[in-house]
Each structure stands twice: as C-alpha cells, then as structure tokens.
Amino acid sequence: MFKKIKYNLVLLVLIATINACDKKDTNFSVSSSDGHVTVKLINEKGKITYALFKDEKELIKSSEISILPYAHTEIKGTFLNSENKTWQPVWGQFSEVKNEYNELVLNLLIENVTAKLYVRVFNKGVGFRYELEDYKEGVEANFYCEYNLNNNDALYAPNGERSPLGPITIEKLTKLKKQPKLMTPLVVEKSEKNHLSILESDLYVAPEFGTIKFKFLKDKKALVSTNTTKLKGAKIKTPWRVILIEEQIGDLVTNTIPLNLATANQIEDASWIKPGKTLWDWRVHDYKTEDGFVYGINTESYVRFIDFAAEKGIEYFLIDANWFTKVTKGHFEITDKLDLEKVSNYAKESGVKLILYYDRHKGDYGDEGLFSYFKSLGMSGIKYGFMGNNVSFTSDAIQKSAKNHLLVNFHDSPVPFTGIERTFPNAITREYCHAQQDSRRAFTPESFIKMALINAIQGPLDMNNGNFDLIGINRGDRQKGPKKPNSYYATVVSEAARTLIIFSGLVCLPDAPEAYNKKSDLFEFIEKMPVGKWDESMVVNSKMDAYISTARRYKEEWFIGSVTNKQERTLDIDLDFLKDGKTYVVTYYEDTEETHGMKNPEAYQVRTGKVKKGDIIKAIMAPGGGHCMWIRPE
Locate the Glycosyl-hydrolase 97 C-terminal oligomerisation domain: which residues (predicted)? Predict the structure, then answer.
C-alpha cells in the first residue's frame, strides 16, 4: 500500500512539473489514486478553468471556477497532498470509511487577496474548496463554479414537498423561457452511462455562504452554482463543492466523499448518541382499536405507544405537535389532556427514550433556553419544525442540541446539511423530502424511487415509511391524512422495504401499535433491522422512476429491501456478497399473486429457506409492491 501511495505521489509531481515547464505554469493536472478520475486545470488571462475526466472521457468540459467576481487570478505556486486512511463514524451506512485521495493545492493571488484552491480527487469524485486571507472586510465573495455538460445530459433535482424534477436535458434548458428552481443534490444522467451528482459538503465551516444555488446560463449553455457572502474576519474557507461520479445511479447514495470532506466529529464523548427506530403519534390520531380505544394526544395513548416500543425493542417514541397549546418566551402551556411528567417517567421506567416536537410557528420560546428546557423534561431529542433554510441558525441549533445531549431531527424544508452527521452526529435525520401521507399526488411509487435516488444523496432522510393499515388509511380513518381518500398506492411489503431503503439515523414508524401487531410476522423485518449501525451498505439494483434494491449488513446478517413503481416486476438479487462456504437462513417477506398497490395492498406472505453465496433470488413484486429478505448464518 505504501509503495502505491509513493508511486502516485511521484506521478503527480512529475505531471505537475512537466505541465509547469511546458505551459509556463498555466496547465495543471491531478488524478485519483486508481488513475480513473482526472481534473485538468488551466489559468488563462487571469481565469481558472477545470475539466473533469473519467478514463479519458470528458464528463465536464472546460468550465470556469472562481471566488472573487471579475478579479484577475495569478498562480504563485502549487503543492501536492495524498492520503489513504480509514475512520469510524459514530453511526452510518458503514462502520468504517476509507478516505483516499490525491490533492493539488494552488497558491493564488486574486487581485491583492491571498488565496488557495484545493482540488481533491477521489476514486469516485472530486471536491473543490477556496481558502482566503489578507482581504478587506466587506468584500463580496462568490464561490462560482460552472458545469459545462453535453446537450443530451439529463438533470434531476429535489423539489421540496413535491415529486423531484427531471429528466430535464441541457438542450431543453436552453429553450425554456422560465428556468426551474434547481436544488441540491443535482443528479446528472449522462449518455456515456456515467452518473454525476453535484452538491456541497462541510457547510459547518462557512455557514455565512448559505446553501448552494443553481442557475443555467443560456449564453454559455452552462449550469452554474454559486454561494455568496460579505467577507469578514482574518481568514475564511468555503464549503466544498462536490462532484460525485458513479456508473450506477444507486451508488451515488452510498458514495462517502461528502462525509470524507466534512469536518471530523466535534463531540468529544458521543457515547450518548444512539441511532434507532421511533414510534410516532401524529398519523395515528383517531385510529380506533378493536377494544374501542381511540388514539389521540393524551396520556393513555402515549402509554400504549411506550408499552409497544418496550416490547419490540424500539428505542424511541416521538411526540409530535399539539402537546402544547401556546408558546411564549420561556414557557409552554401543555394541553390538559396530557400529563407529560407522567409520560416521561413511565418511558424512563420502560427503557424507552422520548423525542418532543417544537414548532416555531406556534410561538417563540427562545432558542437560548429551548434545548435545556427539553432536557429538563427528560427528553432525548427534539424534532424541530419550520426552521427555515438558514444555515447559521440551523448550525447553532445542532450545536446547542449537542450541548444538552439531544438528538435533533429537522423538518419542513430544512437545510440540506450534507456531512453534518459526521461533524455533529446528534443531527440524526431531516425531512429533506416529501414525507408520506401529506399529499398523495406527490408521494407515489415513482416519486419514492426518485427521492431514494436523488434526495437521499444529501444525507439521512426522515420520510415516515412503514404504514401497515393501508386500507384504513385509504378509507380516511385517520385525522391526519391522506387529504384525499383512496389515493395511497403501496403494499405493506413495500412499506417495510422502504424503511430499509431510505437511510436514516432515526427510522420513524408512523402507524399504530395494533396495526403492527396484526401483521407481526411482517413487522419482524422492521423489528430485527438495526438502524444506523450498518457495517456495509450497497444498492444492488436501481433505475430512476422504476425500481431500487438496497442491501445492508450488520455483523453477519443482511437485510435487503426492494420496491417497484406501479408496474409489477421481477428483479434478480445476486447474493454474491455472502461469504464462501456458508449456509444462511433467509426469511422472505413478499407480495402474493393477489397483491396490488391499490386494489389489494395488505396481502402478503412470509416464508423461510436457505441460501448461499452466488444464489440469485427472484424478487417478485406487485404493482406498487416490494420484497424483503432477512439473511443470517445458519
């Protein structure tokens, strides 16, 4: 391994030296350690451009990159870095993450400002970052980056609480009168069978830049991203501008480059941070049990949730809105139907942790005392609603939560704070997507697959998958949706699979304990599934709008979930990732021949068998359906 690193470093030095001699310090090049990904940079007439290549194919043509608008840039020198290490996240899709890259650093003089441009090249992508010093306060900085793509390259993007945008070709963008609002992470589907994702990482070090903004420049026929701020202080770093490269679109979701570029863990003792599953009361209101009990916002309902969580080993119970009636500075008025102290004590005795919702629209308690107050109530986390897209405000909330040993779950169009779960692992999840049951026009089998392949690239998602009482929900039995009856298109098996496919540090289960008990053999898949403690994760099948299969390993056990769109489908699941010479027991959780995502959503079957490495499983799925497997050594 040492010889390989040394060889790559020597090669980089040679490339840089040859380019410098031949081109008079205007051309530079840096490649990944495996040699497949290359970034070439040119400084011409005071402007720096880059081009991105994979295996000598040009993925992004010559594109401008800058930090101070219209300023003349000189390259005063270069140096090279290389790293090949591993590190262990507190929780995540992997128990160990490899950080391997080659880096070219350009020492710049931009007008009278001293700067550095970092170009960090990984085997599966690249990151760009500027560092500035010796500037006058008040100078406007704009981290400007072009992406000169081919006309037939297609874009996909998140779309708030709607189905994601795309495909939109570059050629189509040139003809549109009104440009669509493009959000991070952008996905680029290229004709060369490569997929790119454009996003940013490590907003923590530079919240003043705000989140990345995209626009399309018709005159240049180029996509552009920007972050702007007024410079202050002695020195500043920008967030990392990131471009991921994968052949299969699903692999973008498990690409670890954004995590590698994020600031390392800032919590000295993170032993209190535990990922897990949580029950949730919000979507269960008005659910009537067979013994006549009706769920609501009250002590009796919450005791039932806590009992079920304790029985099934579910770590958390999340109490959502309306537990309070009014908020003023430093004071919550709690509904008289709820004895919150009794619920808190009962949960503690039962070994279940509580998470409590706060909605700034209902009144401003004041953030200085909010998190310590939640801690005083015995809470283990806060679900924060309506934060707004304010990076500094969000960063402060994460850090104040951490000081009070609170997990934090951001809702309602939060900041896509990619990589923050490494820096502050108490940032357990966020609703950077459309959660289920709010609007069926937006949440369909197709849009779920889109969100799983687009929105999920930016980090853990809180999507509230796992409804089992689909007939009752479609009938309109619930107080909280869906707004339109008979519009929920899914099968109970696809609901179980979705809880695995969407990665999160907190898997939020939205249905009633009784609904899960009625299908306890299917609920077993969710019950046995660890959350956020994965040793290994991979997307084994993926196609936009059509299907996705995800496999995750915990120790020697594998959990595999697949879903399809409204077309019935059979996918081959190749078990080549199992160990040689071992026999495994597998439990299948499947749609039946009678299952249908709208007409017969609750039909399913559970069976067991044995498998070994190299076996190919036929995952047969109904329209809107799914397929799950729990595999463990015999």
Answer: 533-631
Q: How far apart are the first and last CA of the chain?
A: 36
- Tokens 């899914």 appear where? 490
Report the SS3 class of residue 208: helix
The domain 268-276+290-429 is classified under which CATH number: 3.30.450.40, 3.20.20.70, 3.40.1190.10, 2.60.40.10? 3.20.20.70
Q: Quick check: 388 pLDDT over 80?
A: no
Residue 256's pLDDT is 98
- Kind of pairing between the strands at 506-509 and 276-280: parallel
Q: Which residue has the tokens 């009784």?
A: 514
320-327: list long-range contacts, CB under 8 Å, 24+ apart.
Answer: 320/280, 320/281, 320/282, 320/357, 320/383, 321/282, 321/357, 321/359, 321/362, 321/385, 322/297, 323/297, 323/356, 323/357, 324/362, 326/362, 326/363, 327/362, 327/363, 327/364, 327/365
User: Averaged over 523-533, what is the pLDDT?
Assistant: 97
Q: Is 369 exposed, middle or buried (0-12, 13-18, 19+ CB in 10 A)?
A: middle
DSSP assignment of 329-374 equals TTEEEE-TT--HHHHHHHHHHHT-EEEEEEEGGG----HHHHHHHH
What are the structural domain ranges in the chain?
A: 2-258, 268-276+290-429, 433-634
Spatial CB neighbours of 15, under 8 Å, sequence gap ≥ 6: 29, 30, 31
SS3 130: strand
Q: 553 and 502 in contact (C-beta within 8 Å)?
A: no
The pLDDT value recorded for residue 9 is: 45
The per-residue pLDDT for range 569-626, each reduced to its tens digit, is: 999 999 999 999 999 999 999 999 999 999 999 999 999 999 999 999 999 999 999 9
In percent, the amount of the chain with pLDDT more than 90 equals 84
Record the tokens describing residue 178, joined without a space: 């009104």
Radius of gyration of the chain (CA): 25
Select the CATH number that applies to the domain covering 2-258 from these four: 3.40.50.300, 3.40.30.10, 2.70.98.10, 3.30.540.10.
2.70.98.10
Q: What is the pLDDT of residue 7?
A: 40
DSSP annotation of 321 reads: T
Q: Please state which CATH number belongs to domain 433-634.
A: 3.20.20.70
3-state SS of 26-83 is CEEEEECCCCCEEEEEEEECCEEEEEEEECCEEEEEEEEEECCCCCCEEEEEEEEEEE
Per-residue pLDDT tens digits for 222-266: 999 999 999 988 899 999 999 999 999 999 999 999 999 999 999
Q: Nearest to residue 280, comparing CAs of 447, 460, 480?
A: 480
Instruction: Say what the pLDDT of residue 19 is.
Output: 43
Any idea what DSSP says for residue 175? H
pLDDT tens sequence across 141-193: 999 999 999 999 999 999 988 889 999 999 999 999 899 999 999 999 997 78
Residue 359 — very low, low, confident or very high, per pLDDT cuts 50/70/90? confident
> Are 460 and 503 within 8 A, CB to CB?
yes
